[in-house]
Amino acid sequence: MPEYISKYHAHYNPDTDEYQSIYAHLQATASAACKKNSISFIESIIHLASLLHDAGKYPDEWQTYFENRIQYPDSAQGEKMDHATAGGQLIEELAPHTVLSELVQTAIYSHHGLQDCVSCDDSSFLSDRRRRKAESLPVEECRLRFYEEFDKKQIEALCVCARKDAIKLLQTIQNTMTTWKEENLYGNRDFFLGMYERLLISLLIDADRRNTEDFMTGEDTQSTPSTEELQRIWSSCITNLENHIAGLEKKTDSPSNPHGINWCRSEISRTCRDMAEKPQKRFRLTVPTGAGKTLSSLRFAVYHAARYNKKRIIYVAPFHSIVEQNADEIRNALGMPELVLEHHCNIVLEGAAEQARYDRITEDWSLPVIVTTAVQFLNTLFADKTGNVRRMHSLCDSIIIMDEAQALPVRIMELFNLAVNFLTEFAGATVVLCTATQPLLNDLPRNRLRPCGHMVPEFESYEEGFRRTKIVDDTMRPPGGMDASEAAIYILEKAERYQSVLFIANTKACARRIYKKVLALCEGRYDVRHLSTSMCPKHRSDVLEKINENLSQKKPQICISTQMIEAGVNISFGCVIRSLAGLDNVIQSAGRCNRHREAPLGYVFIVKMCEEMENLSHLKDIRFAQQAMQSVLCQFSGNPESLDGRLDSQKAITMYFQIYYVKRLAEMCYQETVEGVPTNLVDLLSSNPAFAPKAKKGPILKQAFKTAGEKFEAIEDSGKITLLIPYDETARGKLAQLEEPYLAPSRKKQLLRELQVYTVSVTQTERRQLEAGIHGIWDSHILVLDERFYDRDIGVTSEPAPLPELFI
Question: Which residues contact 517 (CB under 8 A, 6 or more apart)?
């Protein structure tokens, strides 16, 4: 039978002068979406949505618009023309007033950008808005031509299956929640239904984009590994990882030292490997700092992936420094670097082809092992851009390792809990929460995390083997808190005794003042360094390299830093001083002290700065953390045995988080104001009570996906802007190229990637202070800082260096 040739076009490739038909695109998109899908009872739903998503391209009006865009790409005809509404109308005709129709309509209308099912402007329903819009569109022509190419009886049969699956979807949510204790304890039906909808949108966007991209490039990148291929991959990963671990264990303590640090690491690792056999969906890996949780959690993951046919392993960490460090460790341990994708904004690759491949695999996280930041992970779940939504289906049937889980912002807690509950209860994922200080996510009064099993059940038995530091409360020296001089003298006293000292401040301003004071008082006896996010990443890397060099050579070293050094930086000082902060921060800081057991015991001192030194009026997280920590310190001072005699004991950690969370329960749902109305993102992504009409009848989907996605910020940036820094000759050379007037867009994009390590983010207030030192290029879309406003020791400064004298 000859292949069907359609006369209606969806895409045009100018390089080959070839057209892709609508029919071919819809069929290929549906096939790809079904292959990428991991949940059996949504397959017919996504199949139907894929076949209908571009039905609006059939009419003469759209075909003419399409041809005009090809011939006159820069003319007014280049404006977008609606091609989604018609497909939504076709499904409503096939399954009027049904859940299926809502699910498919919302996916189709969102495949070029999320939509609000209930408008936050006028409380109108998405289906009503599109029905009114359809009145001015050639829907009848779409219908006739769609069924000219697709067998109507087959579409109707598919629709019957999809209606059954939509009912099964609702029943699955209801049946699962019925087994839970009470409503809203672990989430609500509307939130989970909304997550299923986002998953449908993700599958449609990815299949649609990938098919279009393949047509435009002439490639076939749609293939996904079969179960057999994945098993071979996991088997190879297990072999390579076991060989890697065996090599490390040759360096372990002798059997005569059964409770040494390396023996403890090996025991923890073996326990994690054995736990991979269990079918449990959520685990906590609570082990002391330095226990090797990266390799232990990876060992669990590869065995669990092989045992339960998981599609990928996704390692998530809060900071770039941890991601970069652990990505290298994971690549080395698995022995197959081509299987590992490291995804964050600082990745730069040489060569256009290599960069293009990297861009392609970051779009859908298609590799078996993903190493990424918490920002990328959370954006995939909640942010509005289609590039974020596109990746969500890759979280299904995966193993997700959340490192440093305690670093999640408080306002995201409930959203995070509900997302993990969805992924593990409904989407086939296994989630591992790794940290030395587990937050009490299971104990919230609502929207709590479903129960987790302990991957290392008797983790407290290993604590003594990892004890390298003692935390000392010095917050009452002096009672009112230290000023810059007192802090500098205190630091130098410790330096005399311990030779190397790290001081961690809560604010950049405090760190800067103390750095200058220590520098003035030490009279050259110590190498004194400063670290903060006022310095570009390349500058910070250079400073850390110099500090590590000095420490390895036992040279006297002082470092004054902000909390950016607390986690994920492999560095070891003789003594750490931490400005009063949360207990989780203090314990993370302790990880930078006596890290390699250079001494029998290292000391971590907690001090308090006076109010004039640390202005925390706009740093609510730190203020609340300080208050909770002071309660713990007070308890410890009066009755240390109640906390097992240590400030880093599990009892102390539990007490800290209980106090901290009680004060912040109201914030955990991500509070927002929309159109002057107080609401929160949990509500916006659920039944949307602030904006949904009160009538009982009406569509079941009420989520404001678009509004919630626009409001969501994984890291609150409060309108921060990015400055490019001419830090060294490399940066200056790339900036000079960037200012060339006829720079090709592809080269511009590559240069901006390469300049990521030369960027600093500043607030709008800081920008105004730096106004005289900022100049814009490319219509001021890119901002560059004058070298005079960048200090070689402290980074961005509003006090510019004087201009060099001119000799006549």
Answer: 484, 485, 487, 488
Contacts with 267 (C-beta within 8 Å, 6 or more apart), sequence order: 462
Q: Please check whether residue 669 lies inside any domain of the structure.
A: no
- For residue range 695-720, list pLDDT tens digits in order: 778 899 999 999 999 999 998 766 78
- Across the chain, how many H-helices and E-strands are there? 28, 23
| Residue 259 banded pLDDT, cuts 50, 70, 90 | low
Supply the mean pLDDT for the chain: 92
Task: For residue 77, give the CATH number of its domain.
Answer: 1.10.3210
The whole domain housing 495 covers: 467-648
Of 508, 518, 511, 512, the C-alpha closest to 486 is 518
Residues near 478 by Cβ (< 8 Å), separated by ≥ 6? 486
Closest by Cα among 669, 668, 698 to 684:
669
pTM above 0.85, yes or no: yes
State the maximum Cα–Cα separation within the chain, in Å, rounded to a whole number: 90
CATH code for position 454: 3.40.50.300
Question: How many domains, the chain?
Answer: 4
- Given a contact cutoff of 8 angstroms between Cβ atoms, the answer to whether 429 and 460 are in contact is no
Residue 219 CA to residue 399 CA, distance in Å, equals 30
| pLDDT at residue 531 in the model | 97
Judged against a pLDDT cut of 70, whether residue 268 lies above it is answered with: yes
Residue 334 Cα distances to 175, 300, 317, 330, 598, angstroms: 40, 13, 19, 6, 30
Residue found under tokens 């959520």: 282
